[in-house]
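Q: I'm building a small set of examples for a reading group on sequence design. Run inverse folding on the following structure and report the sequence directly after it, with nothing in between.
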């Protein structure tokens, strides 16, 4: 990954599958058993560990195909 004029030295990315909160359940029109995948990414640049970009997505788990990882079928 590159950004013009920025020397990227580290990227932290995590994806957590969890139960949605009430607002997420309503906004994403989820069924009772549906979970969400929350992806968070931080990009750090030199010099030092200066954070230059942050993004967070929350989407229905089935759009991430994590059900395959857990041997579940939808």
């Amino acid at each position: 990954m590159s950004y013009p004029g920025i020397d990227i030295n580290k990227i932290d990315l995590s994806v957590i599958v969890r139960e949605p909160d009430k607002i997420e359940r309503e906004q994403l029109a989820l069924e009772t058993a549906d979970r969400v995948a929350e992806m968070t990414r931080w990009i750090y640049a030199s010099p030092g560990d200066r954070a230059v970009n942050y993004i967070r997505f929350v989407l229905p788990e089935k759009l991430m195909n994590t059900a395959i990882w857990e041997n579940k079928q939808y």
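The chain has a mean pLDDT of 86.
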